[in-house]
Amino acid sequence: MTAPLLAFDRVAITLGGREILSPTSFEVARGELVCIVGPSGCGKTTLLRAASGLVAPSGGSVRRNGVAVTQPSREVAFVFQDYGRALLPWRTVQGNVGLALEAAGVPKAERGARIDGVLAKVGLAAHAHKFPAQLSGGMQQRVQIARCLAQAPLLLLMDEPFGALDALTRHGLQDEAARLVHEDGLTVLFVTHDLEEAIYLGDRVIALQSNPGPGRPSLARMLEVPIPRPRDQLTTKEHPAFLRLRRELFGFIEQGHG
Amino acid sequence: MAEWGARLRPWAVPLLLLGALELYARTVAAGSDAIAPPSAALVAWFGALRDGSLWQGTLFTLGSAALGLLIASLLGIAGGLLLGLSRRADASSTLTIELLRPIPSVALIPLAMLVFGFGLRMETAVIAFAAFWPMLILTRSAVRQVEPRLLEVSRVLGLSPWQRGWKIVLPACVPRLFVALRLGVAIALVVAVTVEIAANPHGMGYAMMIAQQGLDPALMLAWLGWIGVVGYAVNALALQLQQRVARAMGGAP
Amino acid sequence: MKAQRLPLAEAAASAALLTAVVALWWAASHGGWISRVFLPTPEATIASLREGLADGELAAFTAATAWRMVLGWLLASAAGVLLGVFIGVSTTARAYLQPMLEFIRPLPASALLPLAIAIFGLSPAMVLSVVAFGAMWPVLLGTIHGLASVELRLQEVARCLDLSRAAYVWKIGLPNALPDILAGMRLALTVALIVSVVGEMIASQAGLGQAILLAARSFRASELFAGIVLLGLIGLASNALLALAERQWLKWQRP
Fold first, then answer.
1. Largest distance between two CA atoms of chain B
2. How far apart (Å, rounded) are the C-alpha atoms in residues A35 and A208?
3. DSSP character at residue A133
4. Chain-chain contact of B90 with C3 (C-beta, under 8 angstroms)
5. Among A189, A155, A133, A10, CA closest to A73
6. What single-letter DSSP state applies at residue A3?
7. Gap between the Cα atoms of B145 and C239, Å rounded
8. Which residues numbered 59-78 in C keep a CB inside 8 Å of some CB on A?
9. Domain around B137
10. Taking CA B251 as the corner, what is the angle to CA B250 and CA B252, rounded to the nearest 5 degrees?
């Protein structure tokens, strides 16, 4: 039995005197796409940041491949929700993606080909020389995703990556993300407040609730999504398992408010 | 305990430097005509305070700065309003403004000297020239930056141009005008001291020059430090005023 | 300030206003509304300019002032950025030094001239040192501010990519600070010109500052105005060149 790629072992996080996450445990196996849902304030972003090492847990430990996570590492790529702020405005698309390769010390001669490869994967090959300000929101987010892919990470963490985009763009990017994950065999932890997105994308869905306390753990539900792949925006959402999960988690999330 | 640390931290390096200067001036450079220990400067400052020269100099500098700024603001704000509201005026004045603006205010010191001789008018004239341009340009952009939505509202409500200017444009500009004023205050003070150093035998700058020429380094350093303190205080007050206005007018920048 | 819908018509209006101003000048000086002791005629000014530049004196003075300004500005910019990087990347350094820097910021650079004269005497090097020292502060403060204002998200990206301190400064900190640094350099240019002129005036150094002072003292108004024109041109040219460079380096702001 192989060690899970990511393991949360009774991870608790307290920030500013407030308990954001009660002791939470779960595991993510290699190649899994796990979605985390919950109302705002339930600590899902904090959980993700703990997984990356940006935030240190107040209790318990986060382990990647069995080793405790104390700080960020290039093995883990983080897609931020506010993509506009996570891109270097003074560099072109190519330059932004290249930053990941420069950081990893990839020799200059190799960089061009790898950047082109990754840009082709996210469909931005034609825009390589544009500046972020010239791109739409969806395209900017794809640049960020491209930069994360260029890291060739073991683990991809995505924090409500499509939250700020319109529905059409969102659906397109969801399918693109699903395709990328299953093409490259990435392991993904995907945070969203959109329940349907979570069920549509995930192999598993973890539901968090806010204001944890005794008798009310942060991790409220962890459910498998037994819907076969490849999935499709129209038919998957009519699949009985989809509807069942949706009902089960929806009622729960409504309760979670508060 | 941590709060004490935070309070004292801004003073740590300056006090260290002053201490080093004190030591240096008392030992290596003892009896120098150029350097004096800060303690001697402090004594000299009190001396100037006692014999009235401190207030005389400070009042002159602040007074001429205020007068110059007043003139610059009246002309600059009026001009800026015109340029902001009238595209035609704005377009036709661009060339003239861009040719006159780069003239450094200090270049007009000899001219002002020629016309007014020495004294208040000469200094006020140079300050007014220097402060006029930023007031003009910042007022113009303040008018330009009035939320277009507000102007549409004024059209929908059928306000006359006068009502529009008075009820919407001017109030909307006020926070930015106070930002411009703050900048104007800084410029006015700097130019005032500069004119006094260069030519005008009045005010803080001149007092400092006289002290240096009279080989009184303690008094010279006292004036230098005092100029710094006055500048800092005036700028801080202007900032406070600007922030208060911004808060009162709905937190516009 | 760009011309908009009818660039030709508005350029014409611009030229017209300028011509009107010059005409007013001509009328005022010829008509004696303002004494010719204070206001020379436009032709007299141009004549003084031509004479001064042709004979070589004004040209040499202009070069001296311009060179003082540029050299001091270059030294100031280099020192300002270097020091700014050292202070800007360290939160501790900033905490200890920022208040002191904020105190020095409003101090007129020319106020250091008496101290410099006391220490170094009257010499070109003395003026240059005050020019450089005075012009350094806007660049220093701009650099520190630019480095301190890096978007939090970008700092986290740097952590996630495991960028070294040096790589962070070079790839993220300085590019982020560039607009602030350039703004500081623009201000530094103004300070450099002012201190150069004042320094020349009080330290009797050869240059336009001294020239216009002497012209005023001898009531030679046309020479005074010629000097003012040249100083205005130095200001105009240096600012225009810097604006050009800024536009080039900050192209990404207006893609």
1. 77
2. 11
3. G
4. no
5. A155
6. P
7. 25
8. none
9. 53-248
10. 100
Domain final position from A135, A150, A165: A150
Distance of CA A232 to the CA centre of its chain: 20
> Are the Cβ atoms of C228 and B220 closer than 8 angstroms?
no
Chain B contact set for C102 (CB, 8 A) = 232
Closest-CA residue to A187 (of A63, A3, A4): A4
Give the mean model confidence (pLDDT) for residues C54-73. 93
Are C125 and C149 contacting, i.e. CB atoms less than 8 angstroms apart? no
Q: Which two tokens stand for residue C123?
A: 């010499």
As a whole number of angstroms, the distance between CA C144 and CA C253 comes to: 21
Q: What is the pLDDT of residues B139-157, one digit of tens each?
A: 999 988 887 888 888 888 8
Residue-number span of the structural domain to which C129 is assigned: 40-253
Element at A177 (helix H, strand E): helix A167-184
Beta bridge partners of A35: A190, A205
Longest dimension (CA), chain C: 74
Q: Look up the pTM and report it.
A: 0.89
Give the pLDDT confidence of B193-209 residue by residue, as tens digits: 999 999 999 999 999 99
Contacts of C239 in chain B (CB under 8 A): 102
What is the C-alpha to C-alpha distance for residues C129 and C197, in angstroms, rounded to an integer?
14
Q: How far is C163 from chain B (nearest CA, A)?
A: 30
Question: Of A47, A39, A51, whose CA–CA distance to A22 is shortest?
Answer: A47
Could you tell me the CATH number of the domain that includes residue A215?
A: 3.40.50.300
The per-type count for chain B, helices as H runs and strands as E runs, is 11, 0
ipTM: 0.90
Tens digit of pLDDT for each residue in C116-155?
Answer: 999 999 999 999 999 999 999 999 999 999 999 999 999 9
Please write down the HEC assignment for all residues of A160-173.
CCCCCCCHHHHHHH
Pairwise CA distance, residues C170 & A99, whole Å: 12
Task: Provide the domain count of chain B.
Answer: 1
Is the same domain home to C118 and C14? no
